[in-house]
Amino acid sequence: MDQAVARTRSDPHAPVVAAKRPRGRPRKTADERDDGNRRVELVNAAAKLFRQKGFDATSTRDIAAAVGMHSGSPFYHFKSKGALLYAVMDEGMRSAIARQSAALQAAAVSAPSAFPAAALLRVLIRNHFDVLLGPGSDFIPVMLYESRSLTARQRALLARLQGDYEALWAPALNALSQDGQIKGPVKLARLLIFGALNWSVQWFDASKDASLDDLADAAMALFVQQPSPVRQSQA
Amino acid sequence: MDQAVARTRSDPHAPVVAAKRPRGRPRKTADERDDGNRRVELVNAAAKLFRQKGFDATSTRDIAAAVGMHSGSPFYHFKSKGALLYAVMDEGMRSAIARQSAALQAAAVSAPSAFPAAALLRVLIRNHFDVLLGPGSDFIPVMLYESRSLTARQRALLARLQGDYEALWAPALNALSQDGQIKGPVKLARLLIFGALNWSVQWFDASKDASLDDLADAAMALFVQQPSPVRQSQA
DNA sequence: CCTACCGATCGGTAGG
DNA sequence: CCTACCGATCGGTAGG
Fold first, then answer.
1. Which of A185, A218, A225 comes nearest B188 by C-beta?
2. CA dist., res. B166 & res. B186, Å (int)
3. Distance of C1' in D11 from CA in B169, Å
4. What is the Cα–Cα distance from B183 to B163, expressed in whole angstroms?
5. pLDDT, tens only, B58-86
6. Cα distances (Å, whole numbers) of residue B115 to A66, B106, B177
7. How far is residue B13's CA from residue A212's CA, in Å, rounded to a whole number?
8. Is B151:B55 a contact under the CB 8 Å cutoff?
9. Cα separation of A207 and B167, whole Å?
10. How far apart are CA A213 and CA A5, in angstroms?
11. What is the CA radius of gyration of chain B?
12. How far is CA B196 from CA A41, A208, B201, B219, in A?
């Protein structure tokens, strides 16, 4: 495949062995090959398998096979199985943050006044379900359910991204809390709400009746109380 | 497998009966064989370790060491590591059901009229947090987060217990839904609420400020709307 | 329940 | 990225 194309590329550091193109390729060289693609393929395959079977139950051989490599080859791209796990989670978090940021920005730009806090929260929740349950959504579930296998440093790095993600929710949640539309301590409310959403990974069945929009509606109805018109004018 | 069940009840199919304590039963005087105790110790140790490190990352040697046995000995009591996992979950579910049933019964008997649906739900939620986060609460978290490692049959057996557990919640949830105190489709509301509660396993820190009562209060505030006095009299 | 042990698998590496 | 391989570990078993 494109592997063959890559092989034809001349490498300045290549040994002068001449001969033909045997199995022994030149060692890792200047990084200008299609390295990135194979790497991405590995991360995608790992995400899928980690989600399906769990980190511990997935062997590096499984991952290699999923992308058509042999057993030792993933270690050419990642120095350890744990590095692969981290890559999955890091990719998942960055993607989720980018997605939510874009959605919020679009809402704020298009019609700021038409987006009160409840509408913003609905956007966040709807996108969150998409990130969790939509097509190609293996990264965040892995992140949520396999973090036990991370090192302390990896966990700390990801905690920062998680903080960034949560920060996107703060304005909407705080506003709704102050309006009395979300009851109880905001901090606990946030944790409970995230739990309710994240748990959907365990039970949601795309082939069933409920759509992601239905889920978002149900969540909004459950967590956010309609503003009482009386009190609203009073404030 | 169902061997675990068979042991706890008297089951005509119990395969273990025929193979009575066979081989070199040594040292201790014949009275010392508190078979049941060692079994229970194993299940407890397994629950703790499965929760801490996960099922796959826990070796049967870890479990044996935790109760002072040697590596092969757990297999005298359980025919496989998977049977041990099932025993943990089965024990956890039966205990949780018994606990909730007793609490509900006590409430209904002591002062039925003082326990409207909201008060019942509060009891259920409070006990649920206790089962999840209280002292000795390793069984249900294992059940919630390690069910991927079960066989299909084990999963089916546990699903029945889970159904029994959920059934305890139905009266309260349905009543509140009909009263308009819980919004949205009941079925989705139930799943979201369970998720919110179950997720607490991931973040709750007993050494922190919030108590289990605080959690229960926060959950009630978030999910259950106060009945509007106006509408109440109208109905 | 211990002793002794086995086959399978796994993460990872050397070297081309 | 493949070939060939290794040390460690694991679930499980035979037999007393």
1. A218
2. 13
3. 40
4. 22
5. 999 999 999 999 999 999 999 999 999 99
6. 56, 11, 16
7. 46
8. no
9. 25
10. 45
11. 21
12. 34, 22, 10, 8
